DNA sequence: GAACAATAACCAAGCGCTTGCTTGCTTAAT
DNA sequence: ATTAAGCAAGCAAGCGCTTGGTTATTGTTC
């Protein structure tokens, strides 16, 4: 029974709906602990119906990761659009990343740890999507180094930075004392040696 | 059929053997993707035999995490024993932590993300073990702040630091260009504003 | 514009397999 | 004689996925 046009207000594109529900459940419970029945139920389908849209559970994960990462990438680009100062740019990158990580409901960067459930080919595609995501970060870090605001822009710096941010999903509680803005500030402050103060930073 | 004394070289304590095998598999494949049959096979048992030592698969995870964390804690304490300079202390903490993370074969800190498979009570016990583990870190960070080598020793700093380190297990390759020692140096350098150089840190 | 065919998007039912775990028994050590 | 430590076998539940049918929509032909 397909959706009628009279069912207004309901997402007509059930594929995207499945992707969002799957991403959310995969993040919350993990890939293996999430059953295809969970996903179907989350969008009001019967247990076998998701397989009309996706050939396998793995393909659902793969699509959720890639499309989620690309969406996040686009969000990053539009967020830094027009910003020239590299420090301000980094601040916006960090804030936006933490936003999709802690405030969104798909939170695709967290699914990295679930990629082990996929085969080599799928993992390669995901790695490519992640490379795209990292481009603006690396550019900004190099600009910061050029402006003498960063000691090094070697790859480990970028990776350590992502670690700081991504791991925060393990401990950050939105109802706690720390706001996401403050967290973003703390992360940026750890990276950048403030130019105005010298050795003794209060 | 219990182990004979004549089976020299084989671990007599099969419980610890099970714990190590389970921790390794849980880290590699995740809790849900690891079957109790995998664990049994890894130590040369039949599929039902692990349940003589542990009441459930969850209890295996819980024990692996707590005993792994406490072992890591003891290793930390003995590693910093006799070191007074807080910067050297931090360096050793980071290096030791990365050692158990990237070079050990249990790597218990990585299992944090698998704790969601446990109930509230078990998670509370694990959180307590993690609190113990974090004590020397917080002490060292505060000593660093007192010595004006660190801008802030507020809790987020410690948590961001753990993020940097723990996340490295997602990308670090032991056969790559970067050694664990260099990685430890890079991580410490990101935290500490070098006192000898000022603004332009080359 | 009515009749019909084709298609998209599901549902109902269930198949074969794997899972965590149990039970009853066996054997070596104490 | 008792116990610690395991094996052999298997159960019930849950898993990913398939199959065949059903229905509203869309396109085509007369």
SS element count, helices of chain A: 8
Strand content of chain A: under 5%
CATH homologous superfamily of the domain at 56-191 in chain A? Tetracycline Repressor, domain 2
CATH fold name of the domain at 56-191 in chain A: Tetracycline Repressor, domain 2
Description:
Two copies of one chain form a homodimer. In chain A, helix 1 crosses helix 4 and helix 4 packs parallel to helix 6. With 202 residues, the first copy, chain A, is mainly alpha-helical. Chain A is elongated and about 55 Å long. Chain A contains eight helices and no strands. The N terminus and C terminus of chain A are likely disordered. Chain A has a domain of 136 residues: Tetracycline Repressor, domain 2. At the A-B interface, helix 7 and helix 8 of A face helix 7 and helix 8 of B. The first copy, chain A, binds a DNA duplex (30 and 30 nucleotides) through helix 3.
How do the strands and helices of this protein lay out in sequence?
The structure is a homodimer of 202-residue chains.
Chain A: H1 14-29, H2 36-42, H3 50-53, H4 57-80, H5 86-103, H6 120-146, H7 155-167, H8 180-191
Helix pairs in contact in A: 1-2, 1-4, 4-5, 4-6, 5-6, 5-8
The structure holds a DNA duplex (30 and 30 nucleotides).
Descriptive tags:
8 helices, homodimer, HTH-type_TetR-like_transc_reg (chains A, B), DNA-binding, disordered C terminus, 60% helix, Tetracycline Repressor, domain 2, coiled coil (chains A, B), 202 residues, Homeodomain-like_sf (chains A, B)
């Amino acid at each position: 029974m397909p959706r009628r046009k009279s069912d207004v207000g309901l997402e007509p594109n059930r594929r995207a709906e499945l992707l969002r529900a799957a991403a959310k459940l995969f993040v919350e419970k993990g890939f293996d602990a999430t059953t295809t029945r969970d996903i179907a139920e989350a969008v009001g389908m019967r247990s076998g119906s998701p397989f009309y849209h996706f050939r396998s559970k793995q393909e659902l994960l793969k699509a959720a990761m890639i499309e989620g990462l690309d969406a996040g990438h686009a969000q990053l680009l539009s967020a830094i659009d027009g910003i020239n100062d590299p420090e301000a740019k980094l601040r916006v990158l960090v804030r936006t990343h933490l936003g999709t990580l802690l405030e969104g409901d798909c939170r695709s960067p967290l699914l990295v740890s679930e990629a082990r459930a996929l085969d080599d080919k799928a993992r390669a595609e995901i790695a490519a999507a992640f490379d795209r995501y990292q481009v603006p970060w690396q550019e900004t870090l190099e600009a910061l180094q050029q402006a003498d605001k960063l000691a090094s822009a070697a790859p480990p710096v970028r990776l350590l930075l992502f670690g700081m941010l991504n791991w925060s999903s393990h401990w950050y509680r939105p109802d706690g004392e720390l706001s996401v803005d403050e967290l973003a500030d703390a992360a940026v402050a750890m990276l950048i040696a403030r130019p105005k103060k010298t050795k003794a930073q209060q």
